[in-house]
Specification:
single chain, Alpha-Beta Plaits, 15 helices, Pept_M20A
Amino acid sequence: MTALPTEYKHETLGAVAAERLSALVRIPTVSSRDEREVDHAAFRRFADALRAVYPRVHSVLERETVGGHGLLYRWRGASETRPVVLMAHQDVVPVVAEDWAGDPFSGEIRDGAVHGRGTLDDKGSLVAVLDAVETLLAEGFTPPQDVWLSFGADEEVGGTCAQVAVDGLRQHGITPWLVLDEGGAVATGAFPGVDAPIAVVGVAEKGIADIELVTTALGGHASTPARGGATARLARAVVRVDRHPFPTSLPAPTVEMLATLAPHAVGPIGSVLRLLLRLGALRPSAGGAPGRPDVVGRLTAPLRALLARLLGASDPETSAMVRTTVAVTQLQGSPGANVVAASARARLNVRIAPGSSVDAVVSRLRRVVRDPAVSVTAIASDDPSPVAPTDGEQFALLRAAVGEAYPEAVVTPYVMLGSSDARRFHAVWPHVYRFSPFAMTREQRWSIHGAGEHLTVDALGRGVVFYRTLLRILPS
């Protein structure tokens, strides 16, 4: 194991953490919905590796296993009044090896970065948390509050580890003052017109639904096909879904994000945002005083609607900020090239914007498909999470920690586009946030769940600085 550094600058911290991350990436902790496909030995090796590379953590903190391979640590602090939960997950998604230039589980350190599946999602965060704790323990530091570390092992498949951890904390009588999971990042090229790095802190996350379209018809030999069969009807339904995207809207966290970015935006988009800011259109609706209409909200509603439509017509990342999205991810027809399908199905992955719901999504999709012969069914789903406040001590604490690691970044709330284990915590406790303290380019963000995933050593070191700062400045 690399010796602990004597100076705690991000360059030195990053070099040490990179070696640990490299070793952990080489352990292929791939999760699957099919229990038979899970390599349980890999998860056991991962837990053993954590014990080996973080000796101080494992000599001081209490550790228990939850939900199979999930890990829950307790670091007893000077007080139990405001416990904090820091989260990450051990598991990664499968790889398509031929899409990678090299071994996707190499953990190779080259060109100033650690390469491999899980570096960004989410072993990098796990390493940054544990390196922060390990180095603070080396200094003899005791946190002002109890700190819990929750590292699930089935986040990528929407598993049970996080819920078991929530249930365990509740049984301990723990009410977290702050929960922080993976989520936003210090992003560049994330918003049109803004060149400054943006530290986007998720205060909510979209809902998620796996929805299945299924239709049946008379099958048979491919030499005697009938028109309008199952595959044709399914294709028509899929095209209708693709041609009718969900309408755009600006939920409160997105409005706050736009107001935060307005002073930093350049070009036409900057001018528009600053105009809307002056007009009062970039603020959550106050709702008016009791018995009185919200005059500002009524006057600026058309401007906000226009802005939402403009953003919705932008690149996919920006468009996803302002609407419910639908991705057609799986298609299934007949079992053979010369067989007419007796049934055909499509799987849709839907990310549900705040203010909507699973039921509303299913109802709209049925209207769009317009075919009673095509069933539309939610297979697995979660509604959007609640919205965490941005006007309290918790968000101010996150802002301060970001400022220490990335002083040039603009900190803003946003709605997380993906889903995370944090939604299990947010269903119970209000102050749940989502932020991965790493600088990420657009290319890196697209590599998550794709090929070429990598985390720079510089960003990893800054992530350790972020967590060290967060733990040091917790209120007494």
